[in-house]
Amino acid sequence: MRIVVVGGVAAGMSAASQAKRRVKEADVVALEKTGDVSYGSCGMPYNLMRADNPMDELVVLTADNFRNKRSIDVRLFQEAKKINREKKEVEVWDNKENKAYNISYDKLVIATGARAINLSLQKQVKGVFMLRTLEDGKRLKNFIKERKPKKAFLVGAGRIALEIVHALHELGINTVLVKKRPGRILPQFEEEISEKVEAKLEEKGIKFISGVEIKGFMEKDGFLKKVVTTEGEFDADLSIISIGVNPNAEIAKEAGINIGKTKAIEVDRYLRTSDKDIFACGDCCEHYHRLLKKPVFSPSGTVANKQGRIAGANAIGANIIYPGVVGTSVFRLCDLTVARTGLLREEIKEDFVKTIILSQTRGHAYPGSSPIKIVLFSEKGTGRLLGAQMIGKEYVWGRINVVAAGLYKDFTVDDLSSLDMAYSPPFSPVWDPLLIAANRAKKFI
Amino acid sequence: MRIVVVGGVAAGMSAASQAKRRVKEADVVALEKTGDVSYGSCGMPYNLMRADNPMDELVVLTADNFRNKRSIDVRLFQEAKKINREKKEVEVWDNKENKAYNISYDKLVIATGARAINLSLQKQVKGVFMLRTLEDGKRLKNFIKERKPKKAFLVGAGRIALEIVHALHELGINTVLVKKRPGRILPQFEEEISEKVEAKLEEKGIKFISGVEIKGFMEKDGFLKKVVTTEGEFDADLSIISIGVNPNAEIAKEAGINIGKTKAIEVDRYLRTSDKDIFACGDCCEHYHRLLKKPVFSPSGTVANKQGRIAGANAIGANIIYPGVVGTSVFRLCDLTVARTGLLREEIKEDFVKTIILSQTRGHAYPGSSPIKIVLFSEKGTGRLLGAQMIGKEYVWGRINVVAAGLYKDFTVDDLSSLDMAYSPPFSPVWDPLLIAANRAKKFI
Predict the structure, then answer these.
(1) Hey, which residues 59-88 in chain A have their CB within 8 Å of chain B?
(2) Which of A215, A241, A267 is the last residue of a domain?
(3) Which of chain B's ends, N or C, has fewer CB atoms near its CB within 10 Å?
(4) Complex ipTM, two decimals?
């Protein structure tokens, strides 16, 4: 029995490990086109701000660890080029030996991840970066170390763009953040959250401008000098493009495997593709959304790890269902934590109630307490929880997870308001902000 | 319509406020035997460690606030002595005027709280304290300020005793902590938690001795000098007794209202006592436990607030069910957070699986990560979650609440392992410790 895994980051190495753990005799091969496996790419923006820590510390296990401790045949710099489903073979390009070869499989796991979306106009100017692979991270970090850029121009308005902004701010680099569409930052969040984020950027002296389209990069001696936009020119010696990712689904598509509406690989709840011998997991495939009851494209490191584990197990004969996402995410921006779970307003089809509350993170008169804002969506009539968004300096992560747990089992706002949450002044007011929000919502159901 | 509330702290003032909010015309009278209403007694140990902050800052709303803003007739220093159910009257002793009077009620809410258990041998020695009412807190704080004690002798081994130990340590007072029964600290928790707590006490130079019975206090010039115990004499100029609380149920008992097995006032799920016109809430009454499906005595500020609200609403004509507790609590000890929810081992009747995991609080290579230990109880066979205990320096509060939410709706460990928890390196490893614990438990169900 041979399991071939294409892609060696979060989903791929989880799948390989799980398959091998379940069936010791299985021949498990993992093909990775870069030189790095099993790294936490979500940590890159945070690593960036600590100049003395190498990006490599994000590697959880090396290829040798997998080979020696887990007996997985990890092959670096090996790029899967084509899947021959009839012969059950993968055509591989060996980037070290510069030659092609075929490897046969009994079951195949596609874990090719996603790639950063590029600006179509971008030409090779030194100082313009994307941040997706560990290689990207190392290059960017090296550039910052060697060139000591003073002015950065960041394109994007999502979570990762903001994490990078935070990192550049910590490094003392003067940063302008722009996005193409007019309007506020984090447009998928509610206005009440976005305005707090924009206020934080302003407080930190980070300029945010929306409705800005990049026309080109001007260089001097091969290095970035200015960014030319529809809103004028900006001096910059560093530019980072962080405008989202696209699934690496081409290899599957070319093999005739079904691609979903989201352009990611279609999988069933067992992470099987349209070919029963081929599984997919992580950022290359679709993710079942428990509330929308349909697949979405929701790239994330934690989802990739969970899916990899299930795809690996099922490839070797298990029959585990992927429970799905409910749309949870969190990030830090300077001293703020921003989080969401459940449906965004644009995803809500139901007649809904929106509740906004502002409360405190700690008990009455307890030092260090700070404001926390909660937006709660619930269904009119039934009171079913639909989603939540939060922003504050602390205890946001824990509270969003309570709502995420509630969404998993169709809690109503009445259920949420009934929870026996842990109370002690260092952690919460006697009425937890979540309970306050739920009680408020109940009045309008 | 007159609602009389006996007791003006958390439950009582919540009940009074809720009744008045629902029916503006109602005549709502709150009788409080001390001079303080609506204070957060849970904050007292934490306030104690900040020498410059008066205990009074724990008062959320003053009697005048309730009178002027909420039109509630708050009467301080008025002690309810007797309930005459036939006449629907309460006999009150006015401690200001030193005279008795009767007040009639349509509905009565008993919110008399609980009192600290005293050592039967205790005589009046200056320097021996309990910490229950705000008055206790003020006296203790004042004593520390004036007498500057150097050596404290603390009796107790529960959560509040440990919070006080923490406070005394912060104040630089050399402290010995003793408990009567032999054995470890926090005996209701599992050994894996207790040992971490004991290690922390040792690290901080706080001596903990179990199996110590107090025989008496020796004084000099009226002030505490030594504590005499079965294990010898201890020099001490301050002693605090924190060995639990008993419900103030006497007034109800004397009126012929049913008292439960726990010795607290028996109430139904609507917080009605055995007299349909009399409700009870907070630390004086029993609390429905959702997992045990029976009443327990579970005194807590947050429970008191929730119950007060419901008792007040139901007294004025609503019909709200009290959802009950699941046994959640949390406290801080120095830099540690200790939390539990669900059943304790001794409460579990089912055949159970105990899972222990040690993980990290933050993402791989993220600075500031620290160990977190989780003990999970689940039912053998079904995998139903039964309870959890945790200890660590951060993110314990959030994780215990996720389990508390799960317990509310009968989650299994499979459900817990399926949660779409918020992931980002500052808050969690890519596999959250809770998911690791749930996955581990699944193997043994």
Answers:
(1) 60
(2) A241
(3) N
(4) 0.96
Residue B327 domain-assigned (yes or no): no
| Owning domain of residue A139 | 118-241
Q: Report in angstroms the alpha-carbon separations of A128 from A54, A162, A165, A206.
A: 20, 17, 15, 19
Q: Which residues from chain B sit within 8 angstroms of residue A366, using beta carbons?
A: 43, 46
* A78 and A134 fall within a common domain: no
A328 lies within 8 A of chain B by CB: yes
- On chain A, the residues whose CB falls within 8 A of the CB of B364 are 40, 43, 58, 60
Q: What is the end-to-end Cα distance of chain B in Å, rounded?
A: 56
Catalytic residue among A42, A284, A285, A334: A42
Same domain, B133 and B222: yes
CB nearest to A332's CB, from B330, B405, B426: B426
Residue A360 forms contact with B (CB below 8 Å): no
The C-alpha angle with vertex A234 and arms to A228 and A236, in degrees rounded to 5, equals 105
Query: Would you state the structure tokens that stand for residue B399, as one six-digit string?
Result: 């994780």
Q: Does some domain include residue B278?
A: yes
Average pLDDT, rounded, for chain B: 96
Condensed to tens digits (0 to 9), the pLDDT of residues B19-36 reads 999 999 999 999 999 999
Within 10 Å of residue A184's Cβ, how many Cβ atoms? Answer: 18
Would you tell me which residues 269-298 of chain A have a C-beta closer than 8 angstroms to some C-beta of chain B? Answer: 290
Which chain A residue lies closest to B53 (C-alpha atoms)? A365
- A301-327: average pLDDT: 97
Token digits of residue B122:
């205790």
Instruction: Please list, residue by residue across B62-84, b when 16 or more beta carbons sit within 10 angstroms of its beta carbon and e when fewer do.
Output: bbebbeeeeebbbbbebbbeebe
For residues B388 and B359, membership in a common domain is answered with yes
Domain containing residue A340: CATH number = 3.50.50.60
Tell me the pLDDT tens digit for each residue of B349-377: 999 999 999 999 999 999 999 999 999 99
B323 CB near a chain A CB, below 8 Å? Answer: yes
Same domain for A340 and A261: no
Q: What is the CATH number of the domain that holds B368?
A: 3.30.390.30
The pTM of the full predicted model, rounded to 2 decimals, is 0.96
Tokens of A65: 């660890």
- Tell me if A425 and B40 make a contact (CB, 8 A cut-off): yes
A65 located within any domain: yes
Annotated catalytic residue B334: no
Judgement on whether residues B263 and B347 belong to the same structural domain of the protein: no
Q: Cβ A424–B328 below 8 Å, yes or no? A: no
User: B176, B208, B241 — which closes off a domain?
Assistant: B241
Nearest by CB to residue A58, choosing from B302, B365, B415, is: B365
Return d(Cα A438, Cα B309) in angstroms, integer: 14
Strand segments, DSSP code E, in A348-445 are 352-360, 371-379, 385-392
Does A181 share its domain with A104?
A: no
Secondary element (H or E) of residue B83: strand B78-84
Please count the structural domains in chain A: 3
Chain A environment of B398 (Cβ under 8 Å)? 395, 397-399, 401-402
Query: Which of A46, A415, A431 comes nearest B425 by C-beta?
Result: A46
Instruction: Give domain status of residue B330, yes or no.
Output: no
